[in-house]
Amino acid sequence: MKLDGVKVLDLSAFLPGPHMSMMMADHGASVVMVEPDNGVGEPTRVMGETYDDGTSVWFANIARGKKSYKVNLKDPEQQSQFLKLAAEADVFVEAFRPGVVQRLGVDYESIKAINPKIVYCSISAFGQNGQYKNKPAHDLVIQAMAGTADLTRGMDGAPALTPMPSADMTASLHALSGILMALYRRESTGVGDYLDISMYDSLLSWVPNVTGAIFAEDRQPVRSEMRSFGGNAFVNIYETLDGGHIILGGSEPKFVLNVLTALGGLDHIEDMRKPVGQQGAVISFLKNTFKTKTQSDWEAIFDEIDCCWSTIRTLHKALTETGAPTIKDPAGKTHIKSPIRFKDEPAQLSFDLPEFGQHTQELKGGF
User: Fold this and answer.
1) Which of the residues 10, 168, 201, 271 is marked catalytic?
2) In this structure, which topology does domain 7-206+324-363 adopt according to CATH?
């Protein structure tokens, strides 16, 4: 596999770091979960719903294929033993608040001193520097700070909780990308590097599609006029006769033509050439049209139209239908597959989950 031989020490917890290092493990890396010797370890071991055998579903989908090493880094003897392991590692991941790793003696400079080839990745809410660096935050707070929670208000304009961990996801992907870049560069230089991954910066890097008004006109975008928030007739949600919903999600001319032809609305073709925010006539036509039939009626109709559309499906349906990106382990537990699909060296998922501290003694002899 692509990452065979890569040795990873992951001191992070919850989602961004652990999910990232699991993707590395899926593709051959030797990943060690470094867990605090506090009797619990990784918090997700005991969070949320469980499989029939009592295993946390969350934990199973961030810890598969890893080893567990428990340590009290405040204990000089245990820290010394841990540093021997760090001297062998290729990648070191941590997600403490800025300054904590210095106090624990496992900061980048300390690890680099014993392992110049180390690729060291710090994942934090706001980065290692700047005005917010000491502010505690998880995903939802990051979304609120970054302004994306303001954009994703409900249709009534009131703030809404956003269950998708977008700050976690973007930070995880940027961490993986940066680590792989550094490992690639190390092949020619022989030295590693330090990555400062900010969840806040990571999330904001993904908003180029909604920054037009801000960068070009120095103003807050008007949500109802934005392409992805109701201003575009063909990127919108429409209610059906029975209270169901159809989403249109593509405004390319060919899709617009196909839909308006099928719905008898060709007189609105010119309206669709108007700027986003000025397509009220088309939106009204589509609202009135979709109200004439049930959701199932529209599903049958749209199955025959080449366009971007969907009903609003549940997460349960998406993860349980035939062809879903899931896989069952030998014990019958369902897991989410690796999304990185190589032709020649596909991921090989190990469903072994480490008991808390299971490999501590073994790893004292090294990777």
Assistant:
1) 168
2) Rossmann fold (3.40.50)
